[in-house]
Amino acid sequence: MLRLGVLVSGGGTNLQAVLDSIEKGEVTNARIEVVISNNQGAYALERAKKHGINALCISPRQYTDREEFHRALLNCLRENQVDLVVLAGFLVAIPPVIVEAFPNRIINIHPSLIPSFCGVGYYGLHVHEAALKRGVKVTGATVHFVDTGTDTGPIILQKAVEVKAEDTPKILQQRVMEQAEWVILPRAIDLIANGKVTVTDGKVSIED
């Protein structure tokens, strides 16, 4: 059984998608052990509590410096014996010390088709604003492993979503979540939990 640690900063809609998929049996051989947020007011923590899951706030504000915060976060993941760290809208950069502690065991969901509209500064609505400004006809979402760069780790799954002429950033954001993020994040977890994902030379292979 793969023990998941889900890191979130806001409402937790991606967390909910994972919870629903586990309950429906679409994600097998995995359970959420702990949900951690850097934001005490994150509704994601309430979602976790409703499902009887350990829900914690670990905020940089609670510590004297970032290094101490990073140590606390890493210790919490270790104490909960987490096998896979899932970044589900976590707006804090993961430091090398945690990446190195969980090699190819941290995944992130990004609301674009990487390498488009990714990297430093591309998060939340900023991604969709950039896609609309560029006039792309197709966008989507990507699940990737996390390395020490920003959105540069090996790509696991991607799913395309149509961009419509009347879209606003918020409308496009919702469509990308519904049609892509909430589909491929649980799917990636299921694949990893069942030993179907391998990484070789920075590229992911998925067993049929």
TrEMBL record:
Signal peptide positions (record): none
Gene Ontology molecular function terms on file: phosphoribosylglycinamide formyltransferase activity
Positions annotated as active site in the UniProt record: 110 (proton donor)
Root EC class: transferase
Source taxon at top rank: Bacteria
Residues holding N(1)-(5-phospho-beta-D-ribosyl)glycinamide: 12-14
Swiss-Prot/TrEMBL keywords: Purine biosynthesis, Transferase
EC number per UniProt: 2.1.2.2
Pfam families: Formyl_trans_N
Site (Raises pKa of active site His): 151
Catalytic activity: N(1)-(5-phospho-beta-D-ribosyl)glycinamide + (6R)-10-formyltetrahydrofolate = N(2)-formyl-N(1)-(5-phospho-beta-D-ribosyl)glycinamide + (6S)-5,6,7,8-tetrahydrofolate + H(+)
InterPro entries per UniProt: Formyl_transf_N (IPR002376), Formyl_transf_N_sf (IPR036477), GART (IPR004607)
SUPFAM superfamilies per record: Formyltransferase
Gene Ontology cellular component list: cytoplasm
Pathway(s): Purine metabolism; IMP biosynthesis via de novo pathway; N(2)-formyl-N(1)-(5-phospho-D-ribosyl)glycinamide from N(1)-(5-phospho-D-ribosyl)glycinamide (10-formyl THF route): step 1/1
Keyword Transferase listed: yes
Residue ranges of every copy of the Formyl transferase N-terminal domain listed in the record: 3-187
GO terms of biological process kind: 'de novo' IMP biosynthetic process
Positions annotated to bind (6R)-10-formyltetrahydrofolate: 66, 108
UniProt xrefs under PANTHER family: PHOSPHORIBOSYLGLYCINAMIDE FORMYLTRANSFERASE
Free-text function comment from the UniProt entry: Catalyzes the transfer of a formyl group from 10-formyltetrahydrofolate to 5-phospho-ribosyl-glycinamide (GAR), producing 5-phospho-ribosyl-N-formylglycinamide (FGAR) and tetrahydrofolate.
Family to which the UniProt record says this protein belongs: Belongs to the GART family.
Protein name as catalogued: Phosphoribosylglycinamide formyltransferase
